Amino acid sequence: MKFVIALLVLLSCQGTLTAQRVCGTVIPLRSFEVNGTRSTEEISRDTLSNEIINIPVVVHILYQAAGQNITDAQVLSQLNVLNQDYQLKNLDAANIPAAFKSIAADVRINFCLARVDPNGRSTQGIIHKYTSKEYFLDEGMKYSAQGGDDAWDSKKYLNIWVCYLFGRSLGFASLPGGPADKDGVVINYDVFGTMGTRAPFNKGRTATHEIGHWLGLKHLWGDEACGTDDVDDTPSQRFSNFNCPSFPHVTSCSPNGNGDMFMNYMDFTDDACM
Q1: Which residues on neighbouring strands pair with residue 33, listed in sequence order?
Q2: Region at 167 (left for phi over 0; alpha for psi -120 to 50; beta for the rest)
Q3: Euclidean distance between CA atoms 62 and 162, whole angstroms
């Protein structure tokens, strides 16, 4: 399996006034270069047949109110979800429609909390930090000088910031090849993990979705009507899906009677339908 992380494309995600998933990840439309130069570092070697890609994670928890200071147990519940989802060990994989079962796959990625910090000291991979910021509007959570916490070396760690995001966005991700000091994923504190989170986003799939962007995945519809996510086995779909559609959900651009792959993590359906 060629493990090449490429810069992806999508427009900002839109939602309605009901409880629907809102993703804040924004990607320049079909831009694979920045200022005329390649903006990604490609890993050119193939993985071995049974190789597991281990990704050390550091979770920066930023809180003002006590309820925003999520527990280490809640963090561990999110790591468990990520490893189940990316390794096809999630129990609800049994609900994948027969039409799509053959293309569901274990991508052999394992997420683990960092055990050594950038200075070589032992760490639990979880940082709890009080912030004077009531909420975050932009990317201030990534900088100590702005009430957040500075990123660890993005070449060695996946940075995840958990904080109170203003507005309706559940989270957002940086893109492959972006600035190192912004590299990582941001998730609203009340949709991170499976403990004390709010329905219908209470199964940890917001982080699964946003880390998909961090790894280089688009939304299924390519953020344009009947667009493409550049993954050959994803059927074309007109727009995003919300809530929990019934299978098959056929639209004007569906290639056949199977309709949209709305249970894919990169759609906007509720956690329980992913």
Answers
A1: 38
A2: left
A3: 6
pLDDT (tens digit, 9 = 90+) per residue, 149-165?
A: 999 999 999 999 999 99
Tokens of 46: 């193939």
Binning pLDDT at 50, 70 and 90, where does residue 48 land? confident
Q: Is residue 61 scored above 80 in pLDDT?
A: yes
User: How far lies 32's CA from each of 5, 184, 272, in Å?
Assistant: 11, 19, 33
CA 193 to chain centre: 13
Q: Considering only CA atoms, which of 64, 213, 24 is closest in space to residue 148? A: 64
Q: Which residue has the tokens 């904080």?
A: 163
Q: What would the pLDDT profile of 176-231 be if each residue is shown by its tens digit? A: 999 999 999 999 999 999 998 999 999 999 999 999 999 999 999 999 999 999 99
Q: Residue 88's closest CA among 103, 101, 107? A: 107
Give the CA distances from residue 67 to residues 33, 53, 164, 192, in Å, rounded to whole numbers and listed in that order: 41, 34, 10, 13
The answer to whether the beta carbons of residues 131 and 64 sit under 8 Å apart is yes
Q: Nearest 5°: phi and psi at 214?
A: -60, -35
User: Would you report the helix, strand and coil content of the chain in percent, each value rounded to 5?
Assistant: 20, 20, 65
Q: Is 51 a catalytic residue?
A: no
Instruction: Look at residue 39 and tell me whether its pLDDT is greater than 80.
Output: no
DSSP designation for 214: H
| Bridge partners (DSSP) listed for residue 127 | 60
> Catalytic: which of 42, 134, 210, 224?
210
Tokens of 269: 């359906």
Q: How do 109-113 and 33-34 pair as beta strands?
A: unpaired
